[in-house]
Every structure is written in C-alpha cells, then in structure tokens.
Amino acid sequence: MSSIGLIGLQSKRRAYMLAVLIVANVMCTVFFAMDVIADIESFGSGEASHLMVEAVAAIVLVVGTGFMLFELRRILQRNASMEIGLRAARGDMQALIDGFFSEWRLSDAERDVALLLLKGLDNDSIASIRGTASGTVRAQCARIYAKAGVDGRSQLMSVFMEELLGEPLAKRGDAGALQVA
User: Fold this and answer.
1) Are 11 and 75 contacting, i.e. CB atoms less than 8 angstroms apart?
2) Is the dihedral of CA 100, 104, 106, 112 positive or negative?
C-alpha cells in the first residue's frame, strides 16, 4: 500500500474513533444533564456544591461534544479534499507521462516498459510481467533512454520529478558544490 493510501486509512480510522468518542460523549452528556435536572427538582440546602459540580461537568461535556463534532466535520472535509487532489494529481501525472512518451516517439512496447521503469520495477520483473526475455527489456530500456536523452533509470525518473516539482531542487554553486535552490 502506498504512503498516501496509508495516510488516508489513518485519517479514516481517526474519523471513526472520533465518531465513537462523540457517541460516548453524547451519552455521558445526556446522563449528566438528566441527573442535574433531577437534582434541581429535589434541590435541598446541603446539595448546592454537588449540584454545582454536576452542572459544570454537564456544561464541559456539551462544549466537548460540540468541539468533537466540529473536528470530525473538519477531518471528513480534509479527507474529501485530499482525495480530490490526489485524483487530480494522478490524472495530471498520466497526462505528463503520455506527453513525454509521445514527444520521444516511444513504441507501444517501449511505453509499457517505460511505465514499468517509472514504477520502479527491475528488468527481470518487467520481463516476467511482459512475457519477454530480460535481454529484450534491456534493449528496450536502452532505446527508451536514447530517445529520452538520458543515461539511465535515475535520469529518466528525474525528468518527471522536475516537472512535478516545477523547478530544479538544486543548482551548482561557484565551487561546483550542490546547493539547495
């Protein structure tokens, strides 16, 4: 599972746990509110401090429940927004990949291999998936790199990473040292 998928799963778990706590909090609030109302009806002179403690507890529970409802709503909205953004990013990434593959004039087989390279698979895994020999995949990789004007997998990946990031992460300084831009 991807890290983004894990984050989404954790957020859903947090939202579920928050919902369970809200239900428990509402039940406690109703109990305390009913107890305070019953105590007010049978209010005696020696019970003022006890009534005050219960009333404060009921008020705190009401405020806490309201806050948790607000937080649950915010978490659910944030999850929905993240899922929309993730879907958009995936679509944009696919369009970006297709654009480069077209510009480089990759054949259908080369497109398949290049996509598997971008997913991080090694030559033997790609050969197994495609039902071809490992040597065939190596030859296709060499053609892909040549058409893309890169020297290998790392540089192929960096072409797409630079597009996603919008600008180079680093540049060479006067002494030739790598500096963060």
Assistant:
1) yes
2) negative
For tokens 């540089």, name the residue: 155
What is the pLDDT at residue 88? 58
Closest CA to 101 of 113, 92, 89: 113
Q: Where would I find the H helices in 42-107? A: 48-103
Two tokens at 179? Answer: 């500096």
**Is the model more confident about 144 or about 32?**
144
* Cβ–Cβ under 8 Å, residues 106 and 144: yes
- pLDDT for position 178: 46
Rounded Cα distance between 24 and 65, Å, is 9
pTM of the complete model = 0.47
Contact 19, 86 (CB under 8 A): no
Give Cα 155 distance to the centre of its chain.
Answer: 26
- CATH architecture of the region 104-167: Orthogonal Bundle (1.10)
DSSP, res 143: H
- Looking at residue 180, its pLDDT comes to 47
Q: What is the pLDDT of residue 143?
A: 96
Is 58:36 a contact under the CB 8 Å cutoff? yes
Side-chain-facing half-sphere of 67: CA atoms under 13 Å? 6
pLDDT of residue 123 exceeding 80: yes
Segments making up each domain of the chain, as ranges: 3-90, 104-167
- Partnered with residue 89 across adjacent β-strands are none
